[in-house]
Structure formats: C-alpha cells, structure tokens
Design a protein that fits this description.
Layout: E1 8-15, H1 23-26, E2 34-38, H2 52-60, E3 63-72, H3 81-97, E4 102-105, H4 119-131, E5 136-141, H5 149-154, E6 157-160, H6 169-184, E7 190-197, H7 212-223, E8 229-235, E9 248-255, H8 258-274, H9 286-300, E10 317-321, H10 336-342, E11 349-355, H11 357-366, E12 371-376, E13 389-399, E14 402-404, E15 414-416, E16 420-425, E17 428-433, H12 443-446, E18 457-460, H13 467-470, E19 477-480
Parallel strand pairs: 1-3, 1-4, 4-5, 5-6, 10-18, 10-19, 11-17, 11-18
Antiparallel strand pairs: 2-3, 7-9, 8-9, 12-13, 13-16, 14-15, 16-17
Helix pairs in contact: 2-6, 3-4
Length: about 525
C-alpha cells in the first residue's frame, strides 16, 4: 500500500520563454545568463509565485527532494545546448540517487533549445528515463506555452495558469502537485486530450472585461464545473518565436474519460476558432496613446503637491510600452514612446525603464549631481529601436540594480539587473538600466526614491504583467504599441517553420488544421 504520509517529491527544472527573433540581437541564453537555485537553496522560493509546489509539500509535510532550478534572467534568446546539458546533468544526477514518487517540473511552456523546439517535452522524457514509469511527472506552466505529443505522453498531468498577468502561478502549481500525488496514490487517473488551433494570438489580458483572454478564461472555469473535468487549460501560445509549435492549444484533462476529454477539447477549440476575429482587437500606437493621455489630463488635472503626504490622493495615468517588453525578449532600449513624451507636455513623468549600459556607465563616472549630455537608447535593434535621444540630463541617483518584486506577479522573486541610474530630463525622470527587466511593479523606481503617486504619468515596459500591480495604482491603464519585438501586430513576424497556414497571416488557415 502507498503511504500518503511518506510522499517524496522531486522539484526542479528550467523556466525559459524563448524569443527566437531576439537571439541575434541580445545573444543566446548561456549558463551564465540563468539564475540558479541548487539543492536546498531552491526551498527559498517557498511562499513566492514560483514556489507553489514547495508550499504544497510543506503544508502536507511531504519530503522534498530539491534538484536544480534555473530561470531566465535578462536574456530570452534561444537556450544553448551547453546550458541545457548542464541543467539536465545536475537534475538527473540527483534523481539517479534519490528516488521520488512525484516530480514537479518547473518549466515555462515556451522554451526552445538550439537542438530542440520542445524543451518541456524533452526534459520530461529525460527525467522519465531515470525515475521510471511509476513516478508521476507534473507541471503547471505559463499560459504562453504549447502542448506537443511528447508532452502529452511524458507528463502525467500538465496544465497552465489561467490569468494574464499570471497572479495565479502559485495556486496552479499547488493544484498540479496535489493532482500528481492523488494519481500516484491511485485516487484518480488524469486523462488528457489536446487540440491545436492555428491562431497567432497577440498578448490578451484577463484583467479587462471583454478581452479574448478574459472570455477564454471564463469558459475554462465554466467547463471545470463538471466534476469529471480535472482541468481545462488554454495555452495562448507565444507568437514571438519561429517554430513548428506556434499556435493556440486547448488541453482538457478528465478523470479516466478520454471520450469526454476529446469532446470538450474539440468543442472549446472550435469556439475559439469561430471567434478568432476577437484576436484582432489591437491596442493603439504610440501617437494615439499620447493623444488619449493628453485628453485625460485635460479632464483630470495635473498633480499638485498636498500639504501633507498622507493627503495625497493622486493616481497617475499608467502607460505600458507593450511593443518593447523586456520580459518577452525585447531589447528594452526602444525610444519611440520616450521620444514622444519628451516632446509633449504631460506634466511630471516617471519612465521605467530604458536599457543603455553606455549611458549608465557615463552617468556613474560623472557622479550624482552632474549634468551630462547623452545619446539615450536606440542602440540595440537597428530595425525597431528608433533613434538615440540626444539630450542633457541631470544624474539624480545610482542603484546597484538588485531588485525584489513586491507586486502580486512574481512576488518575492529577486533579479539582478545590473547598475541603474535616475536621469532627470526636464519634468521626466528616466530609470536607465544596464540589464533587461520588465516592470512587474514600481521597484526599479523605488530604488531611486521615486514615489509614483507624485507623478502625472508613469510609463513602464511590459505587455501585461504590469497590470497585476498597477491596476490598484491607477484608474487609467493605457497601452502603447510601439514597433518592438513584442508588438501586438504579430503578423509582422515570419513563421517559416510552421507546416500549416496560420491566422491572421494566411487566408487559407483552417480548423481542424488541414480541413
């Protein structure tokens, strides 16, 4: 008999969202580019967004066998074979000497290695060869992943989060592990069916009513009201990579009912295909967003300092530069939005962030209090970055760039983004970074003494993760689609490795694929 009180859970993996178009610009992801948690250090993730499986073990008093976990830091280019081999070697060598009942594999879902476009499936297969058929392998991924035949075969339970921004990473991981344990104890039999839909979906948040992402999430939850359905997941897919797996996926898991799983997966996929035009509801461009911002300020009024700080009820307008999302593989140095802001009177503006190692070095050498002439940004992507901004800036402060997220998305996770500086250019405060990092909250500004409630406008570089924090900061959340590597105009990217037509690029795309 299997003892539910003596479960041994292995935990580890490689979490990487790969933008193949960024590889040439920012370089591939090597071992030195990854954040590493080895052995007991992995347990430090308990209580964070990434630590759901660890939390489940601690709550149930199950034994944890930590292996190694590595995640993307500031480079989203294709993972090198050498880096991948190092992860495998460390992970598998631990498992060879430490038998486990369930292995929770920490993967993103959209990982690509030089030698395989299916990081998630290949890694699970390698683990299976070591742990055997009796061990249950489970995962809960980012919703921008994929499903492959190899994934469906090697994982005993495979799901995704449902929210974008991903504020549900932790509970979804807990649910996946608990299901894996129940399967190990023969209390249920997860049975999966998946359907691929030929749609390139631009980022679609679940934090606004009526978006395609929100409608999809709500239908997932409605299907899960059926007690026979263990999980209904929709992978939005990641359109910023050129692989045979680009597209959307419906994955339905039942308790030992393959007929029901296939029925619901096919039905749901057909609904998504029939409503595919909703994926074309695209955000405004930079000029349009600045015009909207000007109109809001005309009605709302400009920030006025209160008599005392506790009387400050100002809520800034927040603009997200979604076309240059460093969390999706972009260069982080596009100047389209910042250039427009510097030539438009929007009052006090805080801009998080622009990447420019040369300007950071220049500002540090000049020192706090210096006034310097800079050519800011616009250096890394000749096609999309825009022109460097020639201006005079005052060096307000310097930071080491080590930041711990306090917002609900990736709460408690730390990043080392390299030294950063705060430059004041007129009424605009710009945080200039050495490394790549998107805005999960306001931590990069707080490191430089910026109080976002003292600004008329706050600008961030992020596609949707920013919403998790800023939805409680502002009544006006705006997007500006600049021409970066994560523009919502996904049809601009070549997808040469697909073996079938895909919407909206191809007029002859069909579902089922090939029908």
């Amino acid at each position: 008999m299997k003892d539910s009180n003596k479960i041994r859970v292995g935990i580890g993996g490689l979490f990487h969202e790969t933008n193949t178009y960024a590889t040439e610009l920012t370089g591939p992801t090597t071992l030195k580019d990854l954040v590493v948690y080895e052995g007991e250090a992995l347990l430090k993730l308990a209580g964070t967004a990434m630590g759901g499986a660890i939390d489940a073990c601690l709550e149930s008093d199950w034994e944890i066998v930590p292996t190694v976990f590595m995640h993307v830091n500031t480079t989203f280019g294709t993972v090198t074979d050498d880096a991948y081999a190092a992860v495998k070697q460390q992970l598998l060598s631990t498992l060879a000497n430490e038998p486990v009942d369930v292995f929770y594999l920490m993967v993103h879902g959209a990982g690509i290695v030089q030698s395989t476009s299916d990081l998630e499936g290949d890694l699970a297969k390698s683990i299976r060869e070591v742990v055997g058929v009796d061990t249950k392998i489970v995962a809960s991924t980012d919703l921008h992943g994929k499903v492959t035949d190899l994934i469906a075969r090697e994982y005993d339970y495979y799901t995704t989060c449902k929210e974008y921004a991903h504020v549900d990473f932790n509970p979804c991981a807990k649910e996946a592990l608990l299901t894996g344990v129940s399967a190990f104890l023969n209390q249920l039999t997860p049975t999966m069916n998946y359907q691929k839909i030929p749609i390139l979906l631009p980022p679609s948040t679940t934090m606004e009513a009526g978006t395609f992402g929100t409608l999809i999430r709500d239908k997932c939850l409605a299907y899960e009201e059926n007690p026979q359905i263990l999980n209904c997941s929709v992978m939005h897919g990641f359109p910023y990579q050129d692989t045979e797996y680009c597209g959307m996926y419906v994955l339905v898991t039942t308790d030992n009912d393959i007929v029901l799983a296939e029925q619901i997966a096919t039905e749901f996929a057909q609904w998504i295909w029939d409503n595919r035009q909703l994926s074309l509801n695209l955000p405004p461009n930079v000029d349009q967003t600045i015009a909207i911002t000007t109109d809001i300020l005309a009605t709302k009024g400009r920030y006025q300092a209160p008599a005392a700080f506790w009387e400050n009820d100002n809520k800034p307008i927040v603009i997200a530069d979604i076309g240059d999302n460093p969390g999706g593989g972009c260069t982080g140095d596009t100047t389209h939005l910042l250039s427009k802001i510097l030539t438009t009177d929007l009052g006090k503006v805080a801009f998080f962030n622009i990447r420019d190692p040369q300007v950071v070095k220049q500002a540090i050498e000049a020192g706090v209090g210096a006034t310097i002439s800079v050519n800011l940004g616009g250096k890394l992507d000749p096609l999309r970055s825009g022109n460097p901004i020639a201006c005079t800036a005052y060096v307000k402060s310097i930071s080491d760039g080590i930041e711990t997220i306090r917002g609900p998305m990736l709460n408690g996770v730390s990043f080392d983004l390299g030294p950063s500086v705060r430059l004041s250019i007129g009424q605009v405060d710009v945080i200039v970074q050495t490394g790549l990092g998107q805005a999960f909250d306001d931590v990069s500004g707080r490191a430089h003494g910026i109080d976002i409630y003292e600004y008329d406008v706050v600008c961030v570089k992020s596609s949707a993760h920013w919403r998790a924090f800023y939805q409680k900061v502002s009544d006006h959340l705006l997007m500006a689609d600049s021409p970066g590597l994560t523009t919502a105009r996904v049809g601009e990217f070549a997808h040469t490795k697909l073996t079938h037509p895909i919407y909206p690029i191809d007029n002859d795309a069909s579902f089922p694929i090939g029908a």
